[in-house]
Amino acid sequence: MKITKKYNICVVGIGAVGTEMLRLIRSRKFPCESLTILARSDREESIDGEVYQVRKATPEAFQGMDFAFFAGTEGAKGASVTLGWEAVKRGCVVIDNGDDFRMDDRVPLIVPEINADALRDHRGLVANPNCSTIIALMALAPLHRAAGLSRVVACTYQAVSGSGGSAVDELETQSRGWVKGEAVMPDVYPHPIAFNVLAQIGSVKDDSGATSEEQKMQRETHKIFGDDSIRISSTCVRVPVFNAHSEALHVELKKPVTVEQAREIIRNADGVDLVDDVNEAQYPTPLAASGIENVLVGRIRRDDVFENGLALFVAGDNLWKGAALNAIQIAETMIRIGADSVPASTIGNTGN
């Protein structure tokens, strides 16, 4: 479809995700009439040799904007809570990377390859799912469509970039210090992350023992698939990898699917690449997944623990498909299906 209209867009936040949003907006040639960066204060920022003028984020800054991408630190309260619905009131479509509105009944939670139809009834604010949820569901959704999911057991191996630039710096500093025999002191994380794994991402908020990251995978999967019957268990682990999350997925399907059929399903699905030949050491890795748009899927095999069971391994760029890229694809999909504006009934009446 040829797009002739151009849009006034803004990116709210200029951290790790906001920076990748800017890069992807440029590389994907998003139809921009203007591009504005909003943050806590007025200043200049240099990204890839280009200097951007950053403006202070206020409700009035969204006047005349068509799309606002809220980059948001994962789990952080702040910009979208304060300014999200204010932007919508001014006729701006908000796509929020944070977790504040994901489970809000007013807000569709979208992975375009999976549930784009939910965008047709949006009220002006759309949520990006959690990075580990997106990466898992890119592989699971084609199987769910083909045979139905009954159970999922997921173990994630999540890169430090998911915690922001300071965590990336901490891994590098600790790694260099360890090589030199220096004491390794944690700051971002409760324990050293270099040459270590941390079996906690998020906090435990109830007596389930599950962390907030693990609960997100369950709740968000149910909402995206529109199916609360799927039984989901996960253990989310931070690993000493700079970028791209990996996940081991063990699933029970409602109908039998052979390994070859599963490979064919994945091979024909949008947004994923099949990398699956263990005899040739071909399988997903975070290094291979970093800096590419598709999620890598491999190690597909039978899982005899479950009836109709399959096991697979995935890797995806958490800053791209897990965050910035998915947000931009949401906007591109809204343009494609003609859902690229705030409904008139919503403007000034967001019900927040």
Describe this structure in words.
- By secondary structure, the protein is α/β, with parallel strands linked by helices.
- It folds into two domains: 7-100 and 323-337, Rossmann fold; 132-318, Dihydrodipicolinate Reductase, domain 2 (2-Layer Sandwich), CATH 3.30.360.10.
- Helix content is 30%, strand content 24%.
- It is built from nine helices and 13 strands.
- The strands form two sheets. The chain has a seven-stranded mixed β-sheet with strand order 3-4-2-1-5-6-7, sandwiched between helices. The protein has a six-stranded mixed β-sheet with strand order 9-8-10-13-12-11.
- The two termini are 35 Å apart.
- The mean pLDDT is 94.
Q: Key features?
A:
352 residues; alpha/beta; Rossmann fold; Dihydrodipicolinate Reductase, domain 2; 2 domains; 7-stranded mixed β-sheet; 6-stranded mixed β-sheet; 24% strand; globular
| Morphology call | globular
The CATH fourth-level homologous superfamily of the largest domain:
Dihydrodipicolinate Reductase, domain 2
Poorly predicted regions are none
Percent range of helical residues: 25-40%
Radius of gyration: 20 Å
Terminal-residue CA separation: 35 Å
Look at the helices and sheets and give the structural class: alpha/beta
Largest sheet: 7 strands, mixed
Query: Which fold does the CATH topology of the largest domain refer to?
Result: Dihydrodipicolinate Reductase, domain 2
Tally of individual domains: 2
What order do the strands of the largest sheet run in, or round the barrel if closed?
3-4-2-1-5-6-7
CATH architecture descriptor text of the largest domain? 2-Layer Sandwich
How much beta, percentage-wise?
A: 15-25%
Number of strands: 13
CATH top-level class of the largest domain: Alpha Beta
What do the pLDDT scores average to?
94
Number of helices: 9
Q: Which H/E pattern describes the elements? A: EHEEEEHEHEHEHHEEHEHEEH
